[in-house]
Design a protein that fits this description.
alpha/beta; Aminopeptidase; Glucose Oxidase, domain 1; Transcription Elongation Factor S-II, Chain A; 23 helices; 18 strands
């Protein structure tokens, strides 16, 4: 996520591979002059020496000492403690409050009423030697937030992961979930998709359980002997339709201040349509064992010692959910370091502080490094450092239910953010392992450069090199391994949803990054009472060395972004990435055309005969109209123009940085004013179809994936849903956004060309 600094030869090789036309002196940071690079590296070295594993341990012990969900006494206490800490570090800090809809359970019932009787426990027992697991009076019960109230009794049907493809397989067998309660296992998609798809198919209730094959003893020893989810462990979590819009369901698009106009509860668009509850695999086993009907296909069978059947019948289940639907107050803690030269350009850094229960891993493993970054920056301020740009540190509340704190803050400050925000840097959970990098591809080169300067605490390689070696080992083809070895930078992932970057990137259009270490920190205590200090210090980043690495990584990025004379975005990698996305949506249509033709041929030739395996028997589907020709030329032309503009900008950037003086010129401020709008240009005013809150034309969470990203989402999802008229319109909209981006880059290149003719 190595060695501090890079050699001249490595840097020059990377620049040649990127086809950069002019190479600055080898130690020059992107966006800096040689002289300012030397000063910056000195400050960064001082910064990285400050974060302490002892401090991280003490922060986690304190912040995770009691349950601290939204509206709880300890959630408020933590916010006030974080505020005091920020102030003690020398930062100007305050708390902003919002009043949001956050339902908490009053009544929960799951019982098997036929063919035998069984009442689910719906409770996680304390564990000996884990003192905070026994804080039962303060713990939120096991539930799914934003499930509607309901009281239903119906046959039970097992639907595997409960994603659309699973219902397609059930339909092939002639099994309907209409009027039934479905039981789905976690994984396969974000949890909120499961009740959504179930309701679309006519189900009247939904249960979600953690199967031990995915999240329990099949993976390894269970807690407390090992890190994996025990028999009665339950994953809490929101099932709100955040792919429509995140944040307070009653105030879409506006901050949930005390005087905000709120929708009536009955008009909230993002609540589930059917009641939902999560259960443990101990509670799920008797329910699943009572289901009859066809035996589930191999890939649907979990790790319980039963034969998995699909149903329906003879199992009948009674499900009852009732919640308190009152407003709760959340508290965002905001700290500020004013910029000395460009105070109206903001670098924003955030992590949430609320949790479902004690939340040592999620989120305190990320919140603690944020505090250490702030402390380290306070130490630099005492030594005379002054950032060029304003730095804002945010400890968000209410992330777990629905990205509440970050979304309401962004909506309340949207106009100011659109004018001033340079970048948003997010973390969430953190653990032992490899650096994960995801975000806006205009920041791909930048974060790769940062990762090259951070030492991995175990291997002593750079975190960049360790992550590269992991990527090579995991590559599925020899060609991809060759690409990783020869590409100048590691590809970063695109962002969907699931954490606080979403309102910044996808609503306002602020270039964003999401960073964190992991991959060697397996465990199954996510969103349970066992996610606490005892578990984390036994099974995760036990020495807090990767917490220190995270503080060094993100803090270095904050410093570099705040101090650069010219914002260190890079657009040739972005243009190449968007070009790949454009080819993917073209191939998506081609695949759909070929599959439709093959399916229609099989229908015409009567090839849908019964087989011995009922899961291979297909009811002959109706013929489908073949997908029409879609004109992708506007998108291809826009990608081509964007690539040319990015190349022009990079050549001008190389000349300007190579000159040694251009970035110190007063015209650099005008250039930065243009660059701030590069991510904004990728937003479209109407938003995405049926979800206008999402404005980004390149990155969005999928309508049927939830957290998982859909790139060029308007085009991609229209093709997936076979909405050809909409696909045609979305091609034009996406092309328009990419063309607008190219125009902004053209203006930026022209400004650079004036700085260094």
């Amino acid at each position: 996520m190595r060695v501090l600094g890079r050699s001249v030869l490595v840097l020059m090789a990377g620049l040649l591979l990127a086809a950069t036309p002019a190479s600055p002196p080898g130690d020059t940071l992107r966006g800096f002059t040689l002289e300012s690079s030397k000063a910056e590296r000195d400050w960064e070295t001082k910064f990285r020496a400050v974060p302490s594993t002892d401090s991280l341990r003490s922060y986690m012990r304190r912040l995770s000492a009691r349950p601290h969900h939204v509206g709880s006494p300890y959630d408020r206490d933590n916010a006030e403690w974080i505020l005091t800490k920020f102030k003690s570090f020398g930062l100007d800090a305050h708390i902003e409050t919002f009043d949001v809809l956050f339902p908490t359970p009053i009544e929960r019932v799951v019982e098997l009423v036929a063919p035998t009787k069984f009442v689910a426990q719906l409770r996680e027992p304390p564990v000996a030697g884990d003192p905070t697991s026994a804080q039962q009076s303060e713990q939120l019960p096991t539930y799914n937030a934003y499930s509607i109230d309901g009281d239903v009794t119906a046959p039970l049907v097992y639907v595997n992961y409960g994603v659309p493809a699973d219902y397609d397989r059930l339909e092939r067998l002639g099994i309907s979930v209409k009027g039934a309660i479905v039981i789905a296992r976690y994984f396969g998609s974000w949890r909120g998709i499961k009740p959504k798809v179930a309701a679309e198919h006519g189900a009247i209730g939904c249960l979600i359980y953690s199967d031990p094959r995915d999240d329990g003893y099949v993976q390894g020893d269970t807690y407390p002997r090992g890190p994996w989810r025990p028999r009665f462990g339950v994953q809490r979590g929101s099932v709100m339709e955040m792919e429509v819009y995140p944040g307070d369901p009653l105030t879409p698009g506006v901050g949930a201040t005390k005087d905000a106009k709120r929708l009536p509860l009955a008009e909230a668009h993002t609540l589930t349509k059917i009641p939902v509850l999560p259960i443990s695999y101990a509670d799920a086993q008797p329910l699943l064992a009572a289901i009859g009907g066809p035996v589930a296909p191999d890939e649907w069978r979990g790790g319980l010692g039963i034969t998995y059947h699909v149903g329906p019948g003879p199992a009948r289940v009674h499900l009852r959910v009732r919640s308190d639907w009152s407003l709760k107050t959340l508290r965002d803690v905001i700290a500020r370091i004013p910029g000395s030269t460009a105070p109206d350009e903001w670098v924003i850094r955030g992590n949430h502080h609320d949790a479902w229960v004690n939340g040592a891993e999620d989120p305190i493993s990320g919140q603690s490094p944020l505090l250490e970054e702030a402390r380290a920056l306070g130490e630099l301020l005492k030594q005379g450092w002054k950032p060029r740009r304003t730095i804002i540190y945010a400890a968000w509340d209410g992330e777990e239910p629905a990205l509440l704190g970050s979304t309401e803050w962004v909506e309340a400050h949207a106009d100011e953010l659109a004018a001033k925000a340079v970048v948003y840097l997010n973390t969430d959970s953190n653990g032992r392992g490899y650096l994960g990098m995801a975000g806006s591809h205009s920041l791909q080169r930048f974060i790769n450069d940062v990762a090259r300067d951070i030492e991995d605490p175990e291997t002593k390689l750079s975190v960049w090199k360790r992550t590269e070696l992991r990527a090579i080992a995991d590559a599925s083809t020899a060609e991809r391994r060759r690409e990783i070895r020869t590409e100048p930078d590691l590809r970063i992932d695109a962002l969907g949803s699931g954490s606080d970057f979403s309102p910044f990137l996808q609503h306002v259009g602020i270039a964003s990054l999401n960073l964190g270490y992991g991959g060697e920190d397996g465990g199954g205590i996510y969103h349970s009472i066992y996610d606490d200090f005892a578990w984390y210090t036994r099974f995760d980043d036990t020495a807090f060395v990767y917490g220190r690495a995270l503080a060094q990584t993100v803090g270095t990025a904050v410093l570099r972004l705040a101090d650069a004379e010219v914002l260190p975005y890079e657009f040739t990698g972005f243009a190449e990435t968007v070009g790949r996305y454009a080819k993917e949506v073209e191939k998506l249509l081609q695949d759909e055309q070929e599959q439709t033709a093959e399916r229609n041929r099989e229908v015409d030739e009567g090839m849908f005969a019964a087989t011995a395996d009922p899961w291979e028997r297909s009811v002959p589907p109706p013929r489908q109209d073949p997908p029409p020709h879609l004109d992708f030329s506007p998108l291809a032309n826009a990608v081509d123009s964007l690539a040319r503009a990015a190349d022009r900008y990079e050549k001008a950037f190389g000349r300007a940085q190579g000159s040694g003086t251009a970035f110190a010129h007063s015209g650099a401020a005008a250039l930065n004013a243009i660059l701030i709008h590069t991510e904004r240009a990728l937003t479209v005013a109407p938003g995405l179809p049926r979800r206008p809150w999402f404005h980004h034309a390149v990155y969005a969470p999928g309508f049927y994936t939830g957290y998982g990203v859909k790139t060029l989402p308007g085009v991609r999802e229209a093709i997936e849903q076979r909405n050809w008229k909409e696909a045609d319109a979305q091609i034009a909209i996406a092309a328009g956004a990419l063309s607008a981006e190219g125009d902004v880059l053209g203006r930026a290149a022209a400004q650079l060309e004036q700085l260094a003719p």
